[in-house]
Amino acid sequence: MTTEINRRDFLKLGAAVTATAAIGIGMSERGLIPLPMAAPVAPAAERAPENPPHKWVMVIDQSKCVGCDLCLAACHAYNDTPPNISWSRVEEVAPTDDGRRVFRPVPCQHCQDAPCVMVCPAKATYHRYDGLVMMDYDRCIGCRYCQLACPYGVRHFNWETFSGPNPDVPAAGTPEIERRPRGVVEKCSFCVHRIDRGLAHRPRRHAGLRRRCRRRRRPAWRRGRCRASYRGPARGRCDGRRRSTSRQRRAAGARSQACRRPERQDSGR
Question: Is residue 244 located within the same domain as residue 144?
């Protein structure tokens, strides 16, 4: 069974579709229906925290990038992504005036007002406490709104289950996280597992320097005499005794000899 449609009916159908889309966009701007182009201003609950305890930054020097794609290979290996998905990409942009080629790596920018966070109906894309844009793969329903809203094009949908070998393993590294399931959108996580691991196992910086000596109120690292205090707890605790250095001992010996010389001259007379 075939249905024929003339030119007039086709124009009417196109006008109806255009009017429906315009009405939908107008309703989305009022927050009545969730569409990828909705919410031009992010609500306060969906924005990144203003003063997080940590702010992470990745600096890429474009003057040193030669377009070797080794960073992409390492990302493939450590995050165990399928061969057809790359959480980042390297683009070649316009050359310089002297003809030098210029490459631009494009990872996820972890935006403060992230469009992907605004449009996600399941709240699977969210801001972490430190401002990083993360994915909850258990909540993702695969609507791909976030992929459509991303202005950098660094979100990818898993159409198939990745069960084969990773071509970049072990040459570029070994996987450190689990593979994502089929039917979800995945993106760069800023290697958050390494961040959390570093924060959990970081030593207390200058723990010995900040500990105050029992004998004086000034910090031991400013005094420069209590070695047990400023060398950390592995060297022992401060017992309040002054422990002079070799330079101080030599200076003290020189002063004592200078003080004894007049006595020797008087006794000789």
Answer: no
Task: Give me the mean pLDDT over the 2-31 stretch.
Answer: 52
Confidence of residue 229 (pLDDT cuts 50, 70, 90): very low
Q: Which domain holds residue 177?
A: 34-40+55-201
Give the end of a domain, one of 201, 235, 251.
201
Query: Residue 27 and residue 130: Cα distance in Å, rounded?
Result: 33
Give the Cβ contact number of residue 79 at 10 Å. 23
Q: What's phi and psi for 191, nearest 5 deg?
A: 50, 50
Beta-carbon contacts of residue 27 (< 8 Å; ≥ 6 apart): 33
Q: Are 77 and 170 in contact (CB under 8 A)?
A: yes
For residue 30, name the pLDDT band (cuts at 50, 70, 90). Answer: very low
In a domain, 159, yes or no: yes
**Secondary structure percentages of the chain, helix, strand, coil, to 5:** 35, 10, 55
Reported as a single tens digit per residue, the pLDDT across 147-173 is: 999 999 999 999 999 999 999 999 999
Rounded Cα distance between 168 and 207, Å, is 41
**Contact at 8 Å (CB) between 119 and 36?**
yes
Tell me how far apart the alpha carbons of residues 79 and 221 are, in angstroms, rounded to a whole number: 43
